[in-house]
Each structure stands twice: as structure tokens, then as C-alpha cells.
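Record format v2
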Amino acid sequence: MATEAKGESELKKELAVREEILPIERKLVAGSIILAIILLGILYWVSWSMIAHV
Amino acid sequence: MAKVDWSSLWKKEDWWAFWLGMLLFFLCLAAAYGADIMGWAASAKEWLDPAKSIVPASGAYAALGPVGSLIVTYIVFLILLSIGAKAMGWNVKSYAAGFTVIYFLTWLCWWFGHYAYIASTDPAKAGIPWSLRMTGEAGLIFALILGLIIGNFAKGFAAKLKEAARPEWYIKTAIVLLGATVGIKAVTIDPRVLANFLFRGVCAIVEAYLIYWALVYWIARRYFGFTREWAAPLASGISICGVSAAIATGAAIRARPIVPIMVSSLVIVFAVVELLILPFAAAYFLWHQPLVAGAWMGLAVKTDGAAAASGAIVDALITGTHPEFAPLKGWILNAGIVTKIFIDIFIGVWAFLLAVIWVYYIDKRPGEKVQKIEIWYRFPKFVIGYFLTFFLLWAVCAAAVSAATAGLTDWTAISKATANALKPFSLATGEMDVFRKLFFAFTFFSIGLISDFSTLRREGIGKLAVVYFIALFGFIIWIGLFISWLFFHDIHVFFLR
């Protein structure tokens, strides 16, 4: 029982701790979105101008 | 140079999923070459009459009957899994006893999930007035629920089964076998439009991995305060292909096993909710753009089974209620499958990328040198099995189709020859599917068993569900609809010409 309560307390502590968002995470998210917009533009252009009208 | 620990080849769960999956793959594949050695596997069928609910996967073993095939399947599972358990140093006696209970209780749920009033997507065809239209995958939900009940209300009993409650091992083995299912699907797509479809399907990768994943990860980290260990598998589970993506990401970033398990349990619940809502919404609002509706199912509905089932419902509803689109029958479903295939096959690459980022930029401590071999250690090995079974099956099917259609010019003759060439492989993948689905079912029973509600509360499942709900219904469904529209609108005209 005591062990369980201790475990719960540790988990609560773990969840309470906020991990700082690292620069690499910001880069990963921003880079993904920017790359997605560029790729979607290219894919859209290619799909409608080259493939759909063959 | 780092010393390579070769013992991981037989001591790690990841490798055992690979070996077991590949063994079952090759044994089942033998059926395509005339040696039907796995056809005894017990398969659940949609049923009204219980006597017809369980059959051997192959008609060649019909003499075994339902009880015989269930017992043989149990014995083979027990032997194979116990060998793995022994090699990994688990208590084999406890494992065998626990697995026996898990096997039969899971089968009970799996069988009940196939009851026509629950599973049928076409009640009229099944000869019943109504159905919940959940497909046989409802059995997974029942397995999860029964596991949760035992795990929470019969904790002493649950403790006795825990040695065999190994959801990660079961799901990874299932994913290895899933590669083969996708491989044969890739071959069956009409070659005249395959290139067109495939190209458009690439947008699914961009959407799932670069837009969904980034947004969900950011929301989970920035606004809900999740740690990286939780945010990454959650983002993958919501964005990519549900259970397998959560597991692959969890393995890549070395999250604790509880993380992908919790995400997986949410994925299956939300996938069933989606399955019950989205196909009907798509058929009602998008009937005039049938391929947009089909592609939307592949992009929005998580888990392969639920996505395929949603595509099939949309296909049936639109072609059934709008006769002018009858020539599109099958193509609407295909639009969903193609987008899903692309999302599926990219899981390994994404897991690899995440492993690289976590090893080199996130977990790296100052002054600590990260060995390049770590990337390999973190790489989920079952993903190799997934790719292997995909490419092997795709290659043998493509070769068989190519040989069968050589010299043919008439499209009807080509279609017929293709179907005949793939028939033996369909038998083989049908048998693989029996094992894959059972592994899925064991996974969900095990997930329930090891997840008691107090643990769920502590681990913040409520918060996970809120993020999942906001992401899924707040933007994933709508971005999926927008991109499906962008790439698939008016494409049906090419099929109607």
C-alpha cells in the first residue's frame, strides 16, 4: 500500500514536471509544416498539370 | 568501436516479433505454391448460426471442424510463443498457463464480435433487419473491455495472467504480417490508373507525417504540457496509422511500454467512433465526389481495418444510391486503400527519422558521445519485417501477374488472368490475416488486462483522450477532407469515360 502510494506520488511528480520545449522540437514542427506546404504545392501542380491530363 | 550484442537477436521481444512474423509469413506463403500447411488456422466468420461461426482458414482442412481448428491453432500458438518466452527468459509455465486463458477468452470476444447484428456492414445481405455495422473488429473492442474488466475487478486473476499479457510482442508480430496484406493490395490496383492514384496518394504522406504529426505534437507539448515521451507516440497514433505508428514511435524514442499501449487503446476506441460516423457523413455530403469520399476515409480513419471498412461502406452507399456512379464500384474503396498504403509503408522511415532526432538532438547529454549503432538499436526491428513481407509478397505477386498477362491486350482478359494469378496468393494472405487478426485480438485483451483504471488515472488517459478528441475532430478530419478534395476532386470523371 505504502509502495503504491509512493509510486503514485512519483507519477504525479512526473506529470507535474514540464519539459522545456527544445529548439530542435520547434525546428521539427516548423520545418515539417513549411515542408508540407511546399510539397503540397508541388504535388498539386504536378498532379493536375502532368498526370491527370495524360 | 561499440561491441555488437548479438544475443539481442534471440533475447529481445522486437526480434522475436520479426522471427515469428517471418516464420508465419513463409509458412502461409507456401499455400500459394501448393503446400497448404497452415490452412487449419481457426478463422471467425460473420454469423447468425453459431455452428458456422468458426471455420478453418482453408477449405482443405474443413474436416477439422470449428473445435478441431481452434485446438490446433491453440497448440501451435502455444508452442511458438512458449519457445519465444523461454528464449527471452520469461517463466514458461506461467506464460503457458496465462496464454491458455488469454487465448480462449480472446477467442470468445473475437467470436462474439462477428455476430451479424454487430458486425455486418450489409444487413440486407446478411438477412437481418439491422446491424451495428462495426465489422468483425468489434471483437477487438470486446477483448479490450473484457481485459479491462478482469484487470480492474479481478486483480488476483489478472496477476496470474500477466506473464502472458504481452501486447507489444503480439502487435509487432501482427504488423510484420500486415506488410503482406498491403503487398497484395498494391498489386491488385488497376495498373492503368495506378500511377495516377499512387502519385495522388503521396499527398497522404505529406499530410499525415508533416502536417498532422507536427500539429498534434505541438498541441500536446505546448498547450497540454505532455512530456516528449508521451507527445511523440500520441502524435503518431493520432496522425499516422494508429496502433502500429504509436508502437513504432514508442520503440524509436524508447518510451516506456505503457505509453504506446495507452495511445493504442485510445486509437481503437476513436477508430470505431469514426467508423460509425464518417462513412455515412461522406456518403451523404460527398456523393457527387465519390473518390474524394473514399480518399477521405483513408486519410481520416485510423487503423487499417477501420479505414478499409469505412471505404467499403462509402463505396456501397454511393454506388448503391446513385446508379450513375455504378462503374466506380470498387474504385471508391481503392481511393481509401491507396492513401492508407502510403501512410502505412512510411511508418518505418518516420520511426527512423525520429530515432535519429531523439538520439542526436534530444537524449544526448553534454559530453556524452552517442554511438551511431544506437540508431540501429532504437530502430524497431519489426518494421524491417513489415517492409520485407510487403516487398516479398508484392514481388512474387507482380511476377505472377506479369507472367499470366504476358501477350494479352484485351482488358477483360487481363483482369481475369490477374485475378487467377493472384488467387493462390489471396489464399496465403487470407491465412496470414487469420494469424494477424488473432495477434491483434491478443493485443487488445492484453492491453485491457494490464491497464487498471487507477493506473490510467495516474498516467493521465483523460488528458490523452482530450488531446485525441480535439486533434481528431478539430482539424485532422477537416484537413483530411480538404486534401482529399484538393487531389481527388473530379478524378472520378476519368473512370466514367
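Residues 23-51 of chain A form the longest helix (29 residues).
Chain A has a mean pLDDT of 73.
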